[in-house]
Amino acid sequence: MTATIERGAATAPVRTPKSDPPAKKPGSKRTRGFLASSNGKKAVMAVTGAVMVTFLVLHMLGNLKIFLGRDSFNEYAHALRVLGAPLLPYRTVLTILEIILVVSVVLHMWAAISLARRARKARPVRYVAKKSQAGGYTTHIMRFGGVTILLYVVWHLLDLTFGVVNPKGFDSLPADRMMAGFEPSRWWVTLVYVVAVVMVGLHLRHGVWSAFQTLGWANRTRYKALKATAGLLSAALLVGFLAPPLAITFGVLK
Amino acid sequence: MNLTLKVWRQSGPTDSGRMVTYRVEDVSPDMSFLEMLDVLNERLTIEGDDPIAFDHDCREGICGMCGMVINGVAHGEQRATTTCQLHMRHFEDGAVITIEPWRAAPFPVVKDLVVDRSAFDRIIQAGGFVSVPAGSAPDAHSMPVRKEDADAAFDAATCIGCGACVAACPNGSASLFTAAKITHLSLLPQGQPERLSRAKAMVDQMDAEGFGGCTNTGECTAVCPKGIPLDTIAQMNSDYLKANAK
């Protein structure tokens, strides 16, 4: 005689969806093509980011010319407009560079927005408790930082490029606009500028090494060097960009 | 030890689910986290309540079945440890512990803490294989592999596919998992013939499943019970870009 034990169901019956969801196949319209893929967008982000970082380095070096005097700064600004002269008409090279830069900004934003939307869709139900383990605060402010930088760039162009919100206006020498823009009475402009540059620094601390990772050039032996490079580059840009306005606001440059 | 648990309860895929609080008393610090849940489940069963459903199998940290987000961290705060190998001695008496399932659209909740990770299987199916010549087994030393490559490939191959990387990623990305599987094969001579087509097929499948994109936050590798390194993702990116350049 064998004893039988009625165990019952291990768990309560699970309600299943009416039909199995169809297996998702790659090659459907949404995922076709390099630019539609998450990795493709990341590559766009990395390359356009590199274009912008190159611009920032050159822009910073140009700004530092103010320490060599107003004439030096004005000559530099003029030289940018006559690059390639007399072979090329006035402002040809500069306009081409500006177009490349604008295209980079737009593509960088497009990649960021579509990746952020993708991320949001990938986690429809949020965690009740979530604790970061990687400890990189810079990674969590990339999207917020990007928006801050964009808003700042709009202001910056209105101030020093088009002179709309600059006391000297558009018809003035670049160095005069710069000196007037950051004069001690306009300390709040300098403050906005400091916040924006710090944001750029934090954005690049993650962004620079991240670009190498995205393009597949990072590995465990290079991580240290790449992260150090990102840190040094961010710090150099931070100091280089903050020096002129702070020197003007505090009266070191007159 | 006496604990207060806040556990995600969801009766089925269509239920909206909620957090439910339970008291668990007389927990031994030597119990594993899953054993602690077993104790609670026994009590719930005796009381006629529905026990908490959770995935588990080997309970020795090698199968990748178990996994839950404990106090906001996938597999709990103990590094390089699966939930089954996490012991109650790491918690304080009287602690309040929040337990949630992996949260990602491609990982739908089946019940309570159990999620459907078939998306990972489909990523593997898309390209996680090598072509081998049929016939007798080749000589063991007929295909030389550099020690460094063997080590790195093995590091990647230790992935148990538990899904903690997806759970921890702020973007819900499966990049660390997919990268581990791609790297594991792409560093070895046996994996070379399909190297680029594999990367393309697996990444495209990962996207098709609805996982997010990687933003190199490093959250995945920090919670990975096998410590899969982040540079596997660089390897995947490199192979994927080469595959698209062709």
Structure description:
The complex is a heterodimer of chains A (254) and B (246). With 254 residues, chain A is an all-alpha fold. Chain A has one domain (37-121, 136-249): 3 helical TM bundles of succinate and fumarate reductases, CATH 1.20.1300.10. Chain A contains eight helices and no strands. Chain A has helices at residues 38-63, 70-81, 92-122, 137-140, 142-161, 174-181, 187-214, 223-249. The model of chain A has no long low-confidence stretch (mean pLDDT 89). In chain B, the strands form two sheets. A five-stranded mixed β-sheet of chain B has the order 2-1-5-3-4. A two-stranded antiparallel ribbon of chain B has the order 6-7. The termini of chain B are far apart. The model of chain B has no long low-confidence stretch (mean pLDDT 96). Chain B has two domains: 3-100, Roll (Ubiquitin-like (UB roll)), CATH 3.10.20.30; 117-131 and 144-245, Orthogonal Bundle (Fumarate Reductase Iron-sulfur Protein, Chain B, domain 2), CATH 1.10.1060. Helix content of chain B is 35%, strand content 11%. Chain B has 246 residues and is an alpha+beta fold. In chain B, α6 (195-208) crosses α8 (231-245). Chain B is elongated. In chain B, β6 (109-111) and β7 form a beta hairpin. Classes of the chains: A mainly alpha (254), B alpha+beta (246). Chains A and B meet through α1, α3 and α7 of A and α6, α7 and α8 of B.
